[in-house]
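Structure ticket #2291
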Amino acid sequence: MEKYTEKKLRNQLLQTFIGKHVTDSTLLRIKECNTFMLFLADKTLEKTKLHGANSCKHRFCPVCSWRKSRKNALKISILMQYLKEEENKEFVFLTLTAPNVKADELDDEIQHYNKSFKRLMERKEVKAAVKGYVRKLEVTYNKERDDYHPHFHVVLAVNKSYFTDTKAYITRNRWLELWQKSTKNPLITQVDVRKVKHT
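Resolution: structure written out below.
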């Protein structure tokens, strides 16, 4: 419940910022978001599961976004387990970044990111190595500099032989080079690449 309470407090903060940008009915939905929750429990009341709630489902609502990300994470986890067991795939976690931008540049930068990512995935060596992917855009805010840092978190499905096949394997430095070329931005200095470890 602690995580929920934290998100609900953020929901109340959202109301003050978003009020003048949405309709009265949308604002009311955001205000009343998750004021009612129905849980199912086992006989011991030790295990509970949320069965229903009056969620606003607004894309900026911290509570709804948190719930959606948890559901998506579970779906991705199940899919990865299936691909590992049935299709003999392994996974690479790739983080793609670029320099921070100001608020008025953020929309254009996100569009540029999407186009750049498409170009990256269409490169011959990437297409040969990557058998599928899940991508998530995250944007963080730097209060001191008053700028934004959009970046992609990507889970790449690869053949089990990828890590030993010198023709297929893409090094961290090569990923950086490919991302620089795809974004047409040589100022990018960081990408993060690591093998996903299964538990």
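Closing remark: Residues 87-195 form a domain with the Alpha-Beta Plaits fold (CATH 3.30.70).
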